[in-house]
Amino acid sequence: MKAWEFYTADFLGEHPCVLVSCQARIDAKPEVVVLGCRTMRPANEREPRANELLLDEADGLDLKTLCRCDLLFMVERSRLGRRRGIVTPARRREIARRIIQGLAIARESKGVRSTLLTITRGIRRFAASQGR
What is the C-alpha separation between 71 and 73, in angstroms, rounded? Predict the structure, then answer.
């Protein structure tokens, strides 16, 4: 199991999710943090909202999937089922940005913009160190 992989999860019903815990937690703890997603069937496709990101075949998914970036879930690793794919590096950065915005970590002020840039740089360095 690796960070940024998609799984089918059994929480609040069966849904796709993105594993966003750091690798150290994934390896050591029974609980991990995921973002909930929703598969869009052709009949119910829509544009993503500000707190969502659209993921698709480029990420290894069969159908377009909305990833909700403003609500994190802690789930038991044992509740994660089939691996479905992995988020592309460009979309990882976008998910991280939307998590920061969706959780009100960032506000439009000079000091917070600097903090946001620092967090974003850290995320990029981490992604690069993982070879992704």
Answer: 7
- CATH number among 3.40.50.1000, 3.60.15.10, 2.30.30.110, 3.30.70.2190, domain 5-129: 2.30.30.110
Domain boundaries, the chain: 5-129
| Mean pLDDT calculated for residue range 77-104 | 92
User: What's the Cα-to-Cα distance from 13 to each of 41, 74, 75, 92, 107, rounded to whole Å?
Assistant: 17, 15, 13, 25, 34
Q: What are phi and psi of 28, to 5 degrees?
A: -105, -25
pLDDT band with cut points at 50, 70 and 90 for residue 125? confident
Band of residue 91 on the pLDDT scale cut at 50, 70, 90: very high
Per the structure block, which two tokens stand in for 51? Answer: 């707190």
Tell the burial category of 30 from Cβ atoms under 10 Å away from its Cβ (0-12, 13-18, 19+). Answer: exposed
- The residue with tokens 């994934």 is 26
φ, ψ for residue 51, nearest 5 deg: -95, 5
